[in-house]
Each structure stands twice: as C-alpha cells, then as structure tokens.
From TrEMBL, chain A:
Binding site for Mg(2+): 44, 399, 438
Cofactor: Fe cation; Ni(2+)
Protein residues bound to Fe cation: 66, 435
Organism (species): Methanosarcina spelaei
Name of the protein in question: Coenzyme F420 hydrogenase subunit alpha
UniProt key word Membrane: no
Binding site for Ni(2+): 63, 66, 432
Keyword DNA-binding among record annotations: no
GO MF term set: coenzyme F420 hydrogenase activity; ferredoxin hydrogenase activity; flavin adenine dinucleotide binding; iron-sulfur cluster binding; nickel cation binding
Family: Belongs to the [NiFe]/[NiFeSe] hydrogenase large subunit family.
EC number: 1.12.98.1
UniProtKB/TrEMBL annotation, chain B:
NCBIfam families: frhB, PRK09325.1
Gene3D superfamilies from the UniProt entry: 3.10.450.750
Protein name from the UniProt record: Coenzyme F420 hydrogenase subunit beta
Keyword Glycosyltransferase part of the UniProt annotation: no
Keywords from the UniProt entry: Iron, Iron-sulfur, Metal-binding, Oxidoreductase
Domain Coenzyme F420 hydrogenase/dehydrogenase beta subunit C-terminal: 99-251
Reported cofactor(s): FAD
Recorded GO MF terms: coenzyme F420 hydrogenase activity; flavin adenine dinucleotide binding; iron-sulfur cluster binding; nickel cation binding; oxidoreductase activity, acting on CH or CH2 groups, with an iron-sulfur protein as acceptor
UniProtKB/TrEMBL annotation, chain C:
Keywords: Oxidoreductase
Name listed for the protein in its UniProt record: Coenzyme F420 hydrogenase subunit gamma
Entry EC no(s): 1.12.98.1
Gene3D superfamilies reported for this sequence: 3.30.70.20, NADH:ubiquinone oxidoreductase-like, 20kDa subunit (3.40.50.700)
Pfam families according to UniProt: Fer4_10 (PF13237), Oxidored_q6 (PF01058)
InterPro entries: 4Fe4S_Fe-S-bd, 4Fe4S_Fe_S_CS, Coenz_F420_hydrogenase_gsu, Hydrogenase_assoc-protein, NADH_UbQ_OxRdtase-like_20kDa, NiFe_Hase_small_N_sf
GO molecular function: coenzyme F420 hydrogenase activity; flavin adenine dinucleotide binding; iron-sulfur cluster binding; nickel cation binding
NCBIfam families: FrhG (TIGR03294)
Amino acid sequence: MTKVVEISPTTRHEGHSKLTLKVNDEGIVERGDWLSTTPVRGIEKLAIGKTMDQVPKIASRVCGICPIAHTLAGIEAMEASIGCEIPTDAKLLRVILHAANRLHSHALHNVLILPDFYIPGTETKINPFSREQPLRSVAARIFRIREIAQTIGSVAGGEAIHPSNPRVGGMYRNVSPRAKKKMADLAKEGLVLVHEQMEFMLEVTRNMQNREFVEVAGKQIPLPKTLGYHNQGVMATAPMYGSSSLDEKPMWDFTRWKETRPWDWYMGEETIDLEDPSYPIGGTTKVDTRVNPRMEACNTVPTYDGQPVEVGPRARLATFKHFAEKGTFAQHIARQMEYPDCCYTILNCLDNLDTSGKVLADNIPLGNGSMGWAANEAPRGTDVHLAWVKDGRVLRYEMLVPTTWNFPTCSRALTGAPWQIAEMVIRAYDPCVSCATHMIVVNEEDRVVAQKLMQW
Amino acid sequence: MIEDPYLGKYMTCVSARSTDKEILKKAQDGGIATTLMVYALEQGIIDGAIVAREGDLPWKPRPFVAMTREDILKAQRAKYNISPQISWLKEATRSFGLDKVGITGVCCQMQAVRKAQLYPINMRDVPGKIAFTVGLFCMVNFPYDSIQALVEDHANQSLSSVKKMEFGKGKFFVHTERGNVSTVPLKETHKYEQPGCHVCLDYVSNLADISTGSVGSPDGWSTVFVRTKKGNEVWLKAIADGMFETKPIEEVKPGLGLVMKLAKEKIDKNRKTLEERRNFGVNKALRDPYA
Amino acid sequence: MANKIKLGHVHLSGCTGCLVSVADNYQGFLKILDDYADLVYCLTLADVRRIPEMDVALVEGSVCIQNHESVEDIKETRKKSRIVVALGSCASYGNITRFCRGGQHNQPQHESYLPIGDLIDVDVYIPGCPPSPELIRNVAVMAYLLLEGNEDQKALAGRYLKPLMDLAKRSTTGCFCDLMNDVINQGLCIGCGICAASCPVRAITHEFGKPQGDLNLCIKCGSCYGACPRSFFNSDVISEFEAINEIIAGALKEGERDD
Ligand SMILES: Cc1cc2nc3c(=O)[nH]c(=O)nc-3n(C[C@H](O)[C@H](O)[C@H](O)COP(=O)(O)OP(=O)(O)OC[C@H]3O[C@@H](n4cnc5c(N)ncnc54)[C@H](O)[C@@H]3O)c2cc1C
Ligand code: SF4
Ligand code: SF4
Ligand code: SF4
Ligand code: SF4
C-alpha cells in the first residue's frame, strides 16, 4: 500500500526545501515531489521600473553561492536587450570571475555531500570537520581551493560574494599587471590542488557506487545501481561560461522554453501516514499532518520542448564531452571533472588579458524595450535571465535559474530510491533553493502542456 | 611606551629629515612620508601605497594607488583640502592586486583605517592587508573652494602658479613658482574650515604606525612619532639603512612643547565644541560620534 | 580547557552569502569549530532539522511575515538563544528585501519582509552584504570570551561588542541617506572616503571630497554608515587595535589550543 512520508526541511544545501514522497511497502519512492519552501522575495516583480544598472545588483543577492552567475546573466541580459557589445578585456575578466566562482562552489559542495559518503575501505562516514587524518588534510585542501577561488574572484570581480566590478557595458575597472600575476600564481597553485581533490572525490564516489547498502539512522538501506536515473533530457549552453541572444549562434532558444504552474505539477493535498522519528536529526514530518505541495511550492516548473530537463555539470559534459553516465553518482563524477577546467580557463584568459585595455563600452544604449536573454553556466547549471529594457529602465525581468530547471527533473529521478536516501539524490544537483524561488507569468496554453506531462 | 592624553601612545619621538636629495627637493617638510613609503615599497614591506596626488584642478588632491617610487613622489607636498584617501582602501586589495597596502593620510583617515581593521563593515580582506601607515599631523582641513578663496581672494595669487602652501607661525603661507610669498592671518582662515574637523580629537595621528608633521622641528625638518611595533620595526630598519638624519626632539627648536601646546589647544577646543553640540537646539543635541 | 559555546546559524529570507562569508574564514573557521564553538544548528552544513538551544544564534535574512514558518522560526530563535546576532544586512536592515512588494507566483501574498529587529530584540548587528568574514570572526571570538573567558576577557569583549550592540538598538533601516542625515547634515563628515570603499555596489563617489550617493544603485545595506568613522568611534577600543588584533590572531593560530 502506498504511504506518504515527508522530509522537511531537507538539509546540507542552500535554502529551504522539502521532499514529499509516496512510497511502497518496501519504502521505495513511487512518486517524489521536491519543492522549494523558501519565501518568494519576488525579485522579478520588484525589478520592474528599476534601472538596468541596479537590477543585476539585486539579482546577485538571490544567491550567495552563485551570485556571480546571477550578476553576469543579469547584466548580460540587459546588454542583450539594449544591444551593447562589451570590450574583449571586460569579457575576459568576466570569464575569469565565472570560472573562479565555479571552483569555489564545487569545493563547497564537496563539504556538503561528504557526510553521505564513506572513507573507502571502511564503514565510517566522512565528517569533513573532523580533526582526524586524512580528513583534516582534505578539509584543509578544500578550504585552500576555496580561498584561491574567492581571492581570484575578488580581484577580477571586486568582491568574492556579490561582485561589484561588473556593470552594464563591461566592467568598472581593469586589473593591474600585479593583480594579473597574482591571479595566475593562485590559479597555478589551485591546479595542483584540484587534481588531488578530484582524484580523492572520484575514489570516494566509485567506492560508494560499489556498495550494496548505506546506513541511515542505524538501518541498512539498499543502494540501487540506478539511483537518481530519469528519462528527461539535458540542457547546457556551454562547457564554461554561457551564451546570449547577442551571440552569432545563440545556444539557448527562447521559443523552446515554456512555463507551467506548480499547481499542475505537484501533488494535491495528502495526509502523512508514515513517520520515522529516528531519521537524522529530528525525524520526519508527523503522521496525520496535512500537506499540499502544489499549494506550498515556492518554485516554478520550467520546461524545454515541453519537458523538464536536467542542468548542471552532467548536462554540460553530456552535451559537450560525450559523457554518458547517468544518475546521482554520474552527477558527482561530472562535477569533479570540471575542477581542472576552471583553473585552465582562468590561466587561458589571463594569457590573453591586456591590463591596459579598456573595459567599458564607449556607447551604452538605453534600450527600446526589446527582449534580450543571457545564459550563464552557473556551477549548478544553466542560469537564464531575460530582460526587456526601455530608456534605461527594466520593463520586465525573468530568471530561469538552475535549481528551478532541476526541481521537476529531480522529482522524477527520485522514483525507485529508498526514501531514506532521497536527500542524497537531491544533493547531487547541488541545489540552490533561494535562487529557485520565484515564478513567472504563464498563459493558458502552457497549462495544457503541463497537464499532458502529468498523465505520462 | 609613552602614553599621553594629547599625543597618544608612542615609543620614540625625534626630529628627522630624509637623506634622499631628490625627495627633499620637493618635500613639504623633512620628506618623511614620501621616504618612508618609498623605503617600505623597496623593502617589500608594502606592495603599493595610497597617496594624495594632484587631481583634475590645481591643488585639488585625489587618492591614488602608487606602486612605484615615481608615483609615490608625484604625491609630495601637502594639499590643504580634502582627499578621500580611504575610498581606495578596498580597491587596492582588489583590481590593484595588493596584499600589503601602505597608506598615508591625516589623523581622521588613520581612524577610518583602524576602525576598518577592528570593525570591518563590508571591508572583506582589508584588515589583514593593511601593512604600514604613515599619518600626518593635522590641525584642520578645508574644502577645495575654501583653498581657492584663501589663495585667490585673500592672498591674491593664482592657484595654478602656487608652488607650496604652508601653515605655521600664526599664518597661512602661499609660495609661488616665482618666489613670491603671500601670507594670510590664521584667523581669516577659520571660517573656511571643514566643519567636521571641529569635533576632531586627534592632532598627531595617534593611530598611525608612524606619524609626522612640521610642528616642533626647524624648517626643512619634521617631527616624527614612532607608535606601533610595526612602525618601530620599519623605523629602526630605515634608520639603520641611512634613510634619515635624526636629532633628539629635546635638542631642536621649537621642540615637543609646541606640539603639545597645539595638540592641547585643538583637542580642548574641539571637546568644547562637542559640549556645545550637546545643547545645540532647544532641548535638542547634535550627534556625538564618540558617545 | 573552557567549554565550547553552542553556535547556530538560522537561515531566513537571505541568500546564504552571509553563511559563505562565515565559511570564508577558511582555516580560521575550522579553528573556531575545533576549539571555541560547536555548530549545533545550520541547515546548510548539518543535518539538524529543528532549532535547538543556542548560546549564539547567527540569523541570516529578513522575515517574511506572510510566511508562518519564518515568523515561528525567529520567535523560536529568540526563545532558545542567549545572544541573537543579526548576521548581514538583510537581517539587520532588510537590505534588498526592503524593495519586495509581493505579487509574484507561486506565493504572491509574500509581500512584507522585515529585518529581525522589527520582530524580536536583537543583541548584536554585523552589517554588510555580505558581512566581512573578519568581522564575523571577531564577533565569534569576542562572544566566546564574553561567555567563557576570565574577567578581563569578559570586559574586553563587552567593550568590543558595545558599538555593534548599539547599532542593533539604533535602527532597522539602512541607506546611503544615513550618511546624509546622521553624518553630513550633522556637520560631522570629514571626507575620509571609507564610505565609498565599503559600498558593495559602488553607489558612492566623492565630489570635492564629500560623498555623493546614487540612490538608484543603493541596495539599503547600511554598510557605509557602519564603516564611517563618524557613525561610531569608540576610541577606548579602537586605540587598542594592535593588542586586540594580536589577541584575535592568537586565538586563531593553527594547532592545538593551549589554555
Ligand atoms: C590637511 C593637512 C593639514 C595639516 N596640518 C598640519 C599641522 O597642523 N601641523 C603639522 O605639523 N603638520 C600638518 N600637516 C602635515 C604637513 O603639512 C606635512 O604634510 C607633513 O609634515 C609631511 O611632510 P613630508 O615632507 O614628510 O611629506 P611629503 O614627503 O611631502 O609627502 C606628503 C604626503 O602627504 C600626503 N598628503 C598630501 N595632501 C594630503 C591631503 N590633503 N590628505 C591626505 N594626505 C595628503 C601625500 O599623500 C604625501 O604622502 C598637515 C597636512 C595636511 C594634508
Ligand atoms: S582636523 Fe581632524 S577631522 Fe579634520 S582633516 Fe584633520 S584629522 Fe581629519
Ligand atoms: S545580507 Fe547580502 S549576503 Fe547576506 S543574505 Fe542578505 S543579500 Fe545575502
Ligand atoms: S565615511 Fe563618513 S566621514 Fe568619511 S567621507 Fe563618508 S560620510 Fe564622510
Ligand atoms: S550607499 Fe552603498 S553602502 Fe550605503 S547603504 Fe547604499 S548600498 Fe549600502
């Protein structure tokens, strides 16, 4: 008989979300709903009427882990709307900033997921804050990688969190030759460390893949080989950085995107009838609690070609590097494989950067209200911002952020997993829930698409 | 360590002059500020220094991040109007790429720096990168238009032909390129002062690593206070490397007594101003930043 | 060895940038967790799902008063914590959530966001968007000394924290306007320039030495006012800068703690 169990709030990721799961007698998820429960700050609505310069600064504050993606996608959506090309050196600084942000974010994600994993060859789960070796050296390495990344980000971007240097039309300032050298030295140091860190994470992941069981709250939970598999497609606009409607060959298609309401996607009212007080730490939602995901969801459900898609490192590697593995562990593996590329990208850009080049466009038009979009490949996937700018003011603004794309896809990927390890499945998406909390206007036509999807 | 309610904490106080001929040629006084920053740069104590360089109008300073000796020298001479030096403090650690920042500035700017070091509000990475500070003595500062009025109206000189300005001996001196010297009595200058200076409780840059000014020492020499461990380290090294000639402050005229007298005058006067601000309106006080 | 304090991070309507800043103390963060504080609550870093008793609660983000859970969370936090710290500008002043005006799917009723000080008594502010890792570190060390230190250490910590406690009493709004209203209009500005350096969106320039704020850029974070030497200047503590820096550096030195 199907029972409903709920994990709320979920932990070890950014923001607030919950998992409402219908499970069979063996505790296997038949249908999973993963939704944001973070209050809707309404960035897209509050942007209306504000200046094109201010809105990306506000958009940055949607997420403090990938603020760079939101800043850059926001600014470039404005530039796409007004038709402004930026100087090469400004673009190089943005790419450096972008790669540095991916580096720090992937390293931070390592800290968040490691407690799900075992020290290879042992029955001990990893506590990244432990003083014991080898864990302390791993933690030290992760923190050093993050320090390197955040320092490069702050030099190129003005701040490591919520960068201040990017602006509509380019950047406020180019960097000094000394700053250029500093970034190169750091990236070179980072390159050695990320190779070590990648090897470590791959070993830990492969070890996990070979296990039959994991322990949760003293119970042995079987680990399916197909954990996190789904039949949805993938979406990515570039292996690094992104694309915009100003590109000669844009890598994202506005007309293939459709929006549906959570109402059409999520379960209606349910009553919790399965509870586990031993679930770490604090237990699951109490029996007899009434829940209603479609009413409670704070996120949206975007589709591409009428289907939810997966975005993120696995999507990028599948799209651009013929990476064929699927599921939760493939996502982890793909993420680690992106590590070195961050450092190589920074070093390549620095090679080409002219520190005396100008970084601000001579002419910054004020816009006539046409739509422009920019996609930035955030650490956790494609972040598309759309802007309509007229006379320097924002008429309409939309953000299709990575975790928004992943919510419905991942909900499907929960099917077949024992509910006790459902959180492992969502964590593999490196969710950033605050970003994903907003919703866009839809027309009636789109609702039909959604209902069809529900039946399938 | 000496602790004085007016002169702050210091380890040593001497009269000094740079031994660098090029620096001395254009120095305001003994060329202490410039020589110390150049020395710190060459010794790797700092990677660059925030100084007050000439801006877009004659004698209007602008903050500048100098990373070479030549650039530090371009900031020589006191410009008696506001240079928002500390606006570059964070950027120096960002696009300029400095890990060890040197800063020159007046007393209140040293206060801003130390506050940022202990209470870094949106000043990430800055506290650990403040490597060496040289503070100037400061009685008062002026808005640009005040200096324009003093030089062009009161002293009847054109700003663009002024070579040096100087306060001392109860007068404001304006030296022109052609060797002309005009003076304005100090009391005529008061109305033009920056109002914020009237609650300033520091005359000799108590919070700098090393502070310096003209008062107390003979013409062409400077009075120097060495205040912190860091300051002492740099000073002893610089002396050992022959960067400065020094004389004990007790042996020069007018000596520490004058510094003390002026410090006391300034601070007591400004304490009184703060007191007056407490009863400024009818049962209304103006804000007291030190409360 | 003195007891570790119980430290928690409560996430409301914030972006987690404040928490990333906490972690951006890197080795210093590990040292704090090793020796001074147990992280007893932090949804992003630990599996604890319900708010426990805490000595120090770092609260990030503002409160959406149309969201029942958020309102309960902040009340619960106050009840269960000895010291409540508003971590960052959203918790202290509202920051960008001051601009919120609701009307957006899927919860269009989420309209009103308040800094935590409008709902509960807050003990300490750490302004900044995000707050500097170094200031978070200083407050963490000082809170530890205040709760677990000897008499001298308690006194020092009390003096250090006082202006940040005063900020928490002063206001729940922050803006460039604070510099106009409480510094320039009060005849206190000295053109030092640090307000411009502190502004996270480069909204401040200096014109003839005095700040000019672009109100179409300002995100209402309150940093400029906090950084200004003419907002608060506690000379008794700031003149001890060299000794206090040494104490903090000593506390965070790598290796085993010796006491
Ligand atoms: C506004 C002001 C008021 C002063 N009042 C007094 C006083 O009352 N009594 C006294 O003894 N000395 C005072 N001085 C200091 C004195 O004028 C000299 O600047 C000091 O002795 C340094 O001389 P020097 O030869 O070592 O400097 P130099 O080697 O010539 O270098 C000058 C340094 O001053 C800095 N500087 C110049 N103008 C400014 C400015 N507007 N703001 C910040 N930094 C600046 C430059 O960056 C440079 O590093 C004052 C200085 C200023 C700027
Ligand atoms: S008198 Fe004080 S406040 Fe005024 S400029 Fe000099 S040091 Fe600053
Ligand atoms: S203060 Fe800034 S960094 Fe902190 S939660 Fe708010 S927007 Fe994010
Ligand atoms: S920080 Fe304060 S005193 Fe300094 S320039 Fe800004 S407003 Fe004026
Ligand atoms: S001017 Fe800048 S620092 Fe001041 S409140 Fe506005 S955004 Fe914050």
